[in-house]
C-alpha cells in the first residue's frame, strides 16, 4: 500500500463517509419515490439496528472495547454520520452525553428538492440504541429532538446517551 499523508488519509475517510451517506440517501430516496415514504421508513427501521450494531462491533475491533459513555463517544467519533455532519457535543461526562446535528445535509438536500423533512427520529433511535447496546448494555438513548418533531432552525436533531443501571 502506498504511504499517505495525514491530510490524504483524512480526506479519504471523509470521502468514504460521504460514499456511505450518498448511498444511504439515494436508496432511501429511490424507495420513497417508487413505493412511498411509509415503505422507505419501514425498510430503514428494519435494517438500522443491524447497521448500528455492526458499526460498533467493527469500530471496537479497531479502537478497543471501552465501556460506558466514554466508550460510546470514542467509537461515535468514527461513525459515518459524524464524519458527514460533524455533530456538536453539548454535554459529556460519565453519566451522559448529549450531541446534536446543527446542519443536516440529508435534510437540507430534501428541502432543496422541495420535499418535506424526512422523519428520521425513529430510525435514529433504532440505530443509536443498537450502537449503544453493543458498546455497553447499560447505555440507553433518547431523542431530545429529531424530525418529525419541531426543532430550532440551528439544530436538526439532538440525542442523549446515558447510563441506566
Annotation keywords:
165 residues; four-stranded antiparallel sheet; Muramoyl-pentapeptide Carboxypeptidase, domain 2; 15% strand; alpha+beta; globular; 6 helices
Provide the fold topology:
Blueprint (H helix, E strand, L loop, with lengths): L5 H30 L1 H27 L4 H9 L3 H6 L2 E5 L3 E6 L3 H8 L8 H15 L3 E7 L11 E7 L2
Antiparallel strand pairs: 1-2, 2-4, 3-4
Helix pairs in contact: 1-2, 2-6
What features would you describe in this structure?
With 165 residues, this protein is α+β, with helices and mostly antiparallel strands. The protein has a single domain, classed as Muramoyl-pentapeptide Carboxypeptidase, domain 2, CATH 3.30.1380. 58% of the residues lie in helices and 15% in strands. It is built from 6 helices and 4 strands, in the order ααααββααββ. It has helices at 6-35, 37-63, 68-76, 80-85, 105-112, 121-135, and strands at 88-92, 96-101, 139-145, 157-163. It has a 4-stranded antiparallel sheet with strand order 1-2-4-3, covered by helices on one side. Strand 1 (88-92) and strand 2 form a beta hairpin. The longest helix is centred in the N-terminal third of the chain and has 30 residues, at 6-35. The chain starts with 5 loop residues before the first helix and ends with a strand.
